[in-house]
Amino acid sequence: MSCVGGDDLSLLNDSEGGSLPGEPPPPYQQHTPQVPVFHPTPGESRLANQLTEEEQIRIAQRIGLIQHLPKGIFDPGSDASEKKVKECVICMMDFEYGDPIRFLPCLHIYHVDCIDPWLMRSFTCPSCMEPVDAALLSTYETN
Length: 143
Ligand SMILES: [Zn+2]
Ligand SMILES: [Zn+2]
Known about the structure:
Layout: H1 8-13, E1 37-41, E2 44-47, H2 53-68, E3 71-73, E4 87-88, E5 93-94, E6 100-103, E7 109-111, H3 112-121, H4 132-142
Antiparallel strand pairs: 1-2, 3-6, 4-5, 6-7
One zinc ion binds next to β7.
């Protein structure tokens, strides 16, 4: 039997296969291509291929800002007795020695893999809701 499909002869040859004869074919449906939807500004959604150049630059700038945030390796170190953040509030996991972490200007720390996607959606600290970009801009101005 041919596997090419879409061929009326193969349907006739397959009459004992249990397919119902005389059933009308499903109505033709227009397929819209699957394109990821971006939300460049709240309340506005746009297809990815319709982002303006300005919006693409804004996304690239945000990625650049995130990469400017100081990054490090979690080390409980000598001040382990102090009361300090030991848990990443995004994934609710305790930091372990050697975890790659990101320091926010408000001194909260998170896993790099947790905070980076968060900051792409909301540029605020998930613990204290401090806007990260404003703090960043002020540190840039003082430099
Ligand atoms: Zn985490
Ligand atoms: Zn914070």
